[in-house]
Amino acid sequence: MTSFPTPDTVPLDKSRFTQRLAIGSLLGLIVLGLAWELFLAPLRPGGSWWAIKVLPLCIPLTGLLKNKLYTFRWMSLLVWLYFCEGVVRAWSDRWPSSGYAFLQVLLCLVLFAACALHVRLRLAEARARAEQASAADQPAPSTAA
Questions:
Q1: How far is CA 11 from the centre of its chain?
Q2: Are 41 and 97 a contacting pair, CB within 8 Å?
Q3: pLDDT tens, residue by residue, 98-110
Q4: pTM higher than 0.85, yes or no?
């Protein structure tokens, strides 16, 4: 039997989508950063030590997988460092490195939007639950006069 989504399950579905989108774009940034600096267009022939720039991106991966709200919050701030690097390198590097930098900028924007939307949905969901709980705790108004 197929069940139709109820108002209670819709935010959960949206937050799962934003979680998956954040994880996917974070993994994309990690893979792009490694491939870019090691194989595709390294700063120096044979690869560059700039590949270690992806290490800070590996730290929040477990928090995103465990759906920790705090990780989504600080990840939406950390991603701007990679955005700035992508903008600078898209402007200053030559092709193909500038193309990879532009892809990094796009992935950063997707990651930020997914994290920000995820936090917003989760906070709205918590607020709705708190309102339901407080409404259930209040006694019904008496009609005796």
A1: 16
A2: yes
A3: 999 999 999 999 9
A4: no
